[in-house]
Amino acid sequence: MFNGIVARLLVAVRLASKMEAGESKPMSSPSSQTTIRAPRWYRTLYVGSFVAWVVLASILLFVGQLALSLMFWVLAVATLPVAVACSIKRLEYRGNKLVLVRLAGRVECPVHDVASMRLTNVGNGMSFFVLLKQDGTLIDARGGWRAAELMDLANRLKIPVVQARRIGFGTQEPLAQRSASNLATGKGKAAFIGGLRTLGFNVSWPFAGLTLTDEGFTLRFIGLVHLRGDWAYIENAQRVVGGLLRSPGVRLVLADGRRVVFWSSQPDAVLNALRSRGVQITDPDGPPPKVWLST
């Protein structure tokens, strides 16, 4: 009888040892399977905005306000890609791989191929981020991420984190690299995020981006190139304000006669960047001109 009790105790000890070994095994991994998504409030903001624009456009269409209805339909169309993208986009860690799921498809990268994670804080705990691979290529995940979650994942996976400065739809090189680039190529690269008014439609922040390089400028709408040219293509630039809400902006007058307005909360920075690249700045006498339905 005594031998039977001892045998049972030995079996219990062995089972407990196996259970402890099994429980401790996952802890040796740098991180368990993890999924990072845009915050719920961020997704709700854009999805809710899309629904609101559609409802308002439908109501205005029903009561016969065709012009106002069309404006809200344009806003709904502009908001839809962002709403869908932020609902789909996520970063997964599984099987020793980082998987970025986005509207354009999936991008997989083994953790050992990641040289660094470049974060760009944009306030409110949010950030843009870019993965720099060992071969020098970039995986740009854009914005809409919690900086704390990205930092935590990078620390657990032993991925170096580089803090970068924001330049619009993406990130800019660290200060040392940027200074060297400016000495070699001139003014270097600068970019701004804002809104856009052109013939036919108007969009507000953050659906437009203006990028300036030594070669010329690029104006984007929802990440897609809307207008691109060299510096000779811009006749002049001028500070303007919105007619209704007095939103600050910069009007670009192009060589072919077209005009576009780039809405920006920092028009002085935009004008200074354009002036430093040889663009003529037209300073009005008195208050800036108001922009209503045209450019």
Question: Which keywords apply here?
Answer:
5-stranded mixed β-sheet, 36% strand, single chain, 18 strands, alpha+beta, 9-stranded mixed β-sheet, 295 residues, PH-domain like, disordered N terminus, 2 domains, 6 helices
Describe this structure in words.
The protein is α+β, with helices and mostly antiparallel strands. It has 2 domains: 34-163, PH-domain like (Roll); 175-291, Pleckstrin-homology domain (PH domain)/Phosphotyrosine-binding domain (PTB) (PH-domain like, Roll). Helices cover 34% and strands 36% of the residues. It is built from 6 helices and 18 strands. β15 and β16 (259-263) form a beta hairpin.
